[in-house]
């Protein structure tokens, strides 16, 4: 029985309709060789692979006659083997290095080692002020890092693990992350993200990122991180096998997105800190493919400890994270935060209200006004720790720097 599907693309007041059919003959049969190259990216039909950074008009700038012709898309061959073979077939992980990925709008550049991807900020990736959140930024960093390994041809079936790592039962774990945000991307903005790797000591790897606005050319985000290997079974850190070093060393670039003269030491907090949020429990949705809580969730727990009035007026400009221990689904977590009282900027010491001074009881009785007038520090130290009876084990230490928002949420 024949079946058909159609899609519509609107551009500059012109409606272009294309259709694909199966089981038909005639012209559809004659155009089957060209139709096999049709792909769908972000829900839009394209007659040829997308070009990175090209405008949408480029991909549909063809004659109406050509686009409206039916295209025969033959069904894929049956998937062989068992369930595992079917999963691998669905993933279609490259076994050799790829230089272009039309589905991710990605390229391998700079001598075939640096990864570059173009994407658009989605509506579900922004907050009330229509700007991307720090969680969104961290998720983009993680996604592009994995895509980089995907295109390298080295990806096994793990969370960014190479074939040599899979053979040695090893996984990657991040030990340190530093992100600097000059400005947050906004909803609908087109971004160019670059990432690359380099050596870090004898047994570690460094990964850096740059996020730029395609239209403005401005650098929005700089980030650097350090990764080490952990044995998947014993959950202990491991040395880098020579086999794995041989896989990743050809990809190393000696360049830094953030020049750090010396790693800032983050002090350990205790329960006497100013802000404490206890009894935080991971959800199953918080776990990643390595079966521990994704590091992006840690940041959410840290930031939610801060007062709401502060978060409404300030945005995060820098975060440093030092990871100490993984967290599982059955753990109970405590989030602790201490402000640097000497980090209140000078302009915060002047009154924000013109005219006669308001009485303290008036200010304290008006909750929103009290929050607006409070002199907020701009630097904070954070600690996430596991609660196990009277014992507390560190998960991650953090250090955040904030600045005033340039515009308020509606």
UniProtKB/TrEMBL annotation:
<dbReference type="GO" id="GO:0000036">
    <property type="term" value="F:acyl carrier activity"/>
</dbReference>
<keyword id="KW-0809">Transit peptide</keyword>
<feature type="domain" description="Acyl-ACP thioesterase N-terminal hotdog">
    <location>
        <begin position="113"/>
        <end position="247"/>
    </location>
</feature>
<dbReference type="InterPro" id="IPR049427">
    <property type="entry name" value="Acyl-ACP_TE_C"/>
</dbReference>
<protein>
    <recommendedName>
        <fullName>Acyl-[acyl-carrier-protein] hydrolase</fullName>
        <ecNumber>3.1.2.-</ecNumber>
    </recommendedName>
</protein>
<dbReference type="Pfam" id="PF20791">
    <property type="entry name" value="Acyl-ACP_TE_C"/>
</dbReference>
<keyword id="KW-0276">Fatty acid metabolism</keyword>
<dbReference type="GO" id="GO:0009507">
    <property type="term" value="C:chloroplast"/>
</dbReference>
<comment type="function">
    <text>Plays an essential role in chain termination during de novo fatty acid synthesis.</text>
</comment>
<dbReference type="InterPro" id="IPR045023">
    <property type="entry name" value="FATA/B"/>
</dbReference>
<dbReference type="GO" id="GO:0016297">
    <property type="term" value="F:fatty acyl-[ACP] hydrolase activity"/>
</dbReference>
<keyword id="KW-0934">Plastid</keyword>
<keyword id="KW-0150">Chloroplast</keyword>
<dbReference type="InterPro" id="IPR002864">
    <property type="entry name" value="Acyl-ACP_thioesterase_NHD"/>
</dbReference>
<dbReference type="Pfam" id="PF01643">
    <property type="entry name" value="Acyl-ACP_TE"/>
</dbReference>
<comment type="similarity">
    <text>Belongs to the acyl-ACP thioesterase family.</text>
</comment>
<feature type="domain" description="Acyl-ACP thioesterase-like C-terminal">
    <location>
        <begin position="272"/>
        <end position="371"/>
    </location>
</feature>
<dbReference type="InterPro" id="IPR029069">
    <property type="entry name" value="HotDog_dom_sf"/>
</dbReference>
<keyword id="KW-0378">Hydrolase</keyword>
<keyword id="KW-0444">Lipid biosynthesis</keyword>
<keyword id="KW-0443">Lipid metabolism</keyword>
<keyword id="KW-0275">Fatty acid biosynthesis</keyword>
